[in-house]
Design a protein that fits this description.
The complex is a heterodimer of chains A (384) and B (368).
Chain A lengths: L3 E6 L20 E2 L3 E2 L1 H10 L4 E5 L5 H7 L13 E5 L3 E2 L2 E2 L5 H6 L2 H6 L4 E6 L2 E3 L3 H10 L4 E7 L9 E5 L5 E6 L8 E10 H13 L7 H11 L4 E6 L3 E3 L3 H10 L3 H4 L19 E3 L4 E3 L1 E3 L4 E2 L2 E3 L2 E2 L4 E2 L4 E3 L2 E2 L4 E2 L4 E3 L1 E3 L4 E2 L4 E3 L7 E3 L1 H8 L7
Helix pairs in contact in A: 6-7
Chain B lengths: L3 E6 L20 E2 L3 E2 L1 H10 L4 E5 L5 H7 L13 E5 L14 H6 L1 H6 L4 E5 L3 E3 L4 H9 L4 E7 L12 E4 L5 E5 L6 E10 H13 L5 H7 L7 E5 L4 E3 L3 H10 L3 H8 L15 E3 L4 E3 L1 E3 L4 E2 L2 E3 L2 E2 L4 E2 L4 E3 L2 E2 L4 E2 L4 E3 L1 E3 L4 E2 L4 E3 L6 E3 L6
Parallel strand pairs in B: 1-4, 1-6, 4-5, 8-12, 14-17, 15-18, 16-19, 17-20, 18-21, 19-22, 20-23, 21-24, 22-25, 23-26, 24-27, 25-28
Antiparallel strand pairs in B: 2-3, 6-11, 7-13, 8-11, 9-10
Helix pairs in contact in B: 6-7
The chains are: A alpha/beta (384), B alpha/beta (368).
Chain lengths: 384, 368
Amino acid sequence: MKECVGMLLAGGEGKRLGALTHNGAKPAVPFGGKYRIIDFTLSNCTNSGIQTLGVLTQYSPLELNKHIGNGKPWDMNRQYGGVTVLSPYTGKTGGDWYSGTADAIYQNIHFIDQYDPDYVLVISGDHIYQMDYEKMLEQHKETEADATVSVIEVPWKEASRFGVLSVSENHRIYEFEEKPANPQSNLASMGIYIFTWDKLKAYLLEDANNKASSHDFGKDIIPSMLQTNCRMFAYRFSGYWKDVGTLQSYWEANMDILQEKTGSILNDENWRIYTNDSNLPPQYVSQHATVTNSLVNSGCFIYGNVENSVLFKNVRIEKGSTVRQSIIHSEASIAANCILDRVIVMENTVIPEGTILQRSEDEEPLVINEDILGAMLTPAGGGK
Amino acid sequence: MDRMMGLINLDHEHHVFNELAYFRNNASLPFGGRYRMIDFALSNMVNSDINEVAIFVRNKYRSLLDHIGTGENWELDRRNGGLFILPPDWNDPSDRSIGDLRFFHNNRDYFHRGKSQYVLISGSQFISNTDYKNAFKFHLERKADVTLISAHVDKVESEHYPYFRIEADESGWVINITNDQKNSELFTGVYIINKALLMDLVDECIAYNKDNFFVCGIKEKLKNLKVQKYDHEGYSAFVNTIESFYKQNMNLLQEENYRDLFFNRNLVRTKISNNPPAKYCEGSLVNHSLLANGCVVDGTVEGSMLFRGVKVKSGATVKNSIIMQRCTIEEGVYLENVILDKDVHVTKDQMFIGSKEKPYVVAKRQVI
């Protein structure tokens, strides 16, 4: 038996990330020079003592499946429990894609039941944050809650972008509004839930029979639990928490880790972020290179100038090139005399000599891969 | 199918590493920014399709055990074959063997159990990135008993002194193994031998009370054996003294050497740690250097090698130095021609300068 089983929702496409998610799910998008977005949640699980975890995948899961593997980097290669990737499946009575977050859990009730847990932690793989789920579980037990929802205070003017919770003095939730026009509270749901499993199971079964439901935690399960007077509490989180749902926020979150204050999330001895390591040689910084306020991963060769940027493994920056406020994914190479500013260069892209790509502060950062580059370099009107 | 197993024999490896090797075997000495010396021999074996490797190690192996663990980082944590670290645990009351023959004698089972018919034997001081499959093919083609891997050096340097020299005839048959310092064909310590022959030679050495397998079993018996010479190509280095350690690490700052050792061939594997990418801060001024992940640099680093997790605070200067894992260099420090072993903490405004020939060495975990 396991006390608490984690269910990590990682099936989302992340449409607003544009080309970054054309070939892979959002949780698998590279982040922070070495990681993938899902590593933060996976590492939170490891560091919080969650050793049994189901990862629900659906959209374009190849990279994600390979990345998670047997869970070794997160110490989740266990004989009993550990990490299990749960993709949609067919059975005797047919099968279906996961039609919503709640449906994904519903279709895997048998997975959870194997471990006969008291509690289930539901999380998603698309935020950058460090959080001790064990503390949240403690509060859940203390308050004898049916559900605990993790919340963070957001600026009032942004509250209408979130699912907002109103709570009483003892943190009991009495109202939940999804993206309200006139928010009554500035406590935003982080999409992190702990449920008492018996309770959740009952609501999932009921929800599955409801044809009108969209089978979503935020839209269906939480409101219906609230309506039927379940004991629901908010767990207050403070600290760095960032949704990386858009190109702008993805870029910002990468820039955030270059800041002294938030940068420590990668280098916190007590809260390590785990990922696959490529075992590549050290990075080479040549005689004429300058590198400031940047993160650089193994195997890079730098001959040019790098400022406020994040370089993944095996990146090459040639002489005379300047890379500013940019994110360069693995194996990309920037030839000589290029200028890149606010650009996200995707894996394996080769930027030819003398290319100048710049985006100003009020524009969305530019994403570049071989296809986009090819289209850009073809003269307007299609050439010949 | 013809198959090789691997043996890394650390017995009889002579070195002068002083404080760098007070608490560790020379095989686990850090090298190349994030590696240990033994990583090269181990990786070469794995990259030559060898999937069972034994290590003969006599003493100071705590750090070696920690480094190698189950062998998983070299993909040697296998159901079949895999890694065998064989320290001295010898309880045979009839044992008459001495020297490294004791390792062979007391681990006979290991050699008999494996299915490989050939053994690739190596030490840890020859640094290279080599796929020995070609040498093995050559060994089979020439129907040799033993194939010695040799490396040609352009200039004989002091670190080459302890290694045997190979004299071969035109068709590569070895006619002499010598100490001739004028000969620039060095024996790398790596050789391929037929396993059945190896075991026979071991018995013979023990029967005659010999104490060094290579010297007594092969070198002295050269006339009775068919021994071939196979030339190693590509970057290589011999590391056995502090001076050669410093020199060869600094040589890796030459880009072509660095590329040849790490990029042009197979992946050199080492123990994975979980360090974030290196962080270059506002004040960082880094050039002509190699940095491993986990470093945080806010000072000046020039012509140096920083291992994983080194911190260089603002206003500090590190020049022509080798700084091993997790050292901290505080503000205003000046280091030139220095080797800092792991976990050294250099306090504010200190200055240490060694010479290129005699770098200033600080043993691990010191606060200076």
